[in-house]
Amino acid sequence: MIRAFFVFISLICFSIVAHGQLITNIPNRTTTSLNGKWHYIIDPYETGYFDYRYRPYDTDENRKKSSAAFFNYAKAKNKLDRVEYDFDKSATLLVPGDWNSQDDKLLYYEGTIWYKKSFDYKKTGTGHPRVFVHFGAVNYIAEVYLNGEKLGTHEGGFTPFDFEVTDILKVENNCLVLKVDNTRFKEAVPTVNTDWWNYGGITRDVKLVEVPEVFIRDYFIQLKKGSDNIIAGFVQLNNAEKETEINISIPEIDFYKKIKTDNRGRAVFEFEINKLILWSPENPKLYKVIISSQYETLTDQIGFRTIESKNGKIILNGKPIFLRGICLHEENTMRGGRAYSDADALIALTWAKELNCNFMRLAHYPHNEHMIRMADKMGILLWEEIPVYWTVDFTNYQTYGKARSQLTEVITRDKNRASVIIWSMANETPQSDARYAFLKNLISLTRQMDDTRLVSAALQHRSEKGVNIIDDPISHEVDIVAFNQYIGWYGGHPKDIPNVKWAFDQNKPVIISEFGAGALAGLHGDRETRWTEEYAEYLYEQTILMMKKMPELQGVTPWILADFRSPKRVLPYIQDGWNRKGLISNTGEKKKAFFVMQKWYAEIEGNKK
Ligand code: GCB
User: Fold this and answer.
1) pTM for this structure?
2) Cα separation of 238 and 199, whole Å?
């Protein structure tokens, strides 16, 4: 049975790779922003989608028929007309942005909200005839309509998608309507049970993107695995036009090459390249790379570096590196809402730099592209992750499909970013045969799409005769063995932490992907009192003593940079809806544990020099 499931999902793997249609490098294309105020209607009973017999309006046959369907954006034309909704008289929400943090009555809302944006559209003058609407992310299911036509559906709250609108766009008075539903359900990725806020809405940028008839949809330009002087990859057109000449150039180092597309519209290449200054946290060198065809010229800012897992070490540009990391949710803690901008990314990355980090774990789902590109510029290495979290429904092949799509979308979006060194498949998932098959397939998909980066997953340990063992079968499949542990918080006493023993059944680099303690900023007491800054400070000191005795350890990402909202955290006066394990509070104060970690990271950095 399990074997059949495995074979089945392997087949799906191949089809998705062949059909991934995302347009990449949106920040450097010709775009018009649709960000700003959007009208919204809260629709918990889905009145705009189903009639009173609960038949959906949204079928090919019914779509145009009813003015009661919200996507038809009907207006009462005379006194007798009965239209029971009006977008234009409804309130507005800012896009990008979650709905929960913009209106008190939406803080806990889970369900459907309709969004509407009206706009005129003037082409920008590039002469590019085709237009796509691109969404950075919408949580969780988006049904998208333009001028009453259905563009499509997207599922998955943290990855981008686009639809072509060339033939539907008008010069004046376009009406873009989205039904956004963030209802949690068992088969979804993530599933019903998480320790973070289920922020709903159009949480990332919305743009119209202009492209030529034949356009460069995607490309992969990185150093070849195992080499620091060969760049390899592909350029992919949107269609199967063959013999199209593509130029790749890096003017700064006089690199100019021509390649030609094959009958899939793809040009695969491998070129020797010299004189490259390698990207690193100390010197995050980005080159201007130009990719062009007879139809268009695209630029990107790309860094080149190597990353390997060898003899139990993580090797960056040929030298072992210790990953001085920190975990992060995609939240602006001080706003108490989803992060979505360069400014938000800058806050988190600046704090990480202050902590003396060279690495961040972007938990527990793909973060926005501003963050990844800002990390590229600032020199912070990244771990990216998909929300295969806790009790995801591993026996369900549709759930597998959802995980696979999100993984495909994030790799497609970020595979040219030097900062990204690790793709992580899952977090604290319970062992079973089905889960093994599920994760193993995700790992092979990852390696098939991008063999230049390392693969990991945040695993768990078991205890036997006083030793903590990590021998999860998935540790055989990954490049880095990562595990979360909370000794001294969820069981155990901080005093015993330095003597905890660890055993691994693999000779691979190890990362502690989480440890931590809850503390309310400003709450002081002795180090044995829960929720005080002193307790957390003590737990951090003790954990550092333990980590110093772990030769396998090549990196750590404490949980977590800043307090974050979680509906699971209900303790009055302490949590009040916040997970308090942040080193920084939601008012931006640094807690005592911050300085413990900062000092240790400074020591590690100092020893290296
Ligand atoms: C974990 C989870 C993380 C939680 C954290 C906690 O192990 O991976 O999502 O928020 O523990 O605070 O309990």
Assistant:
1) 0.96
2) 33
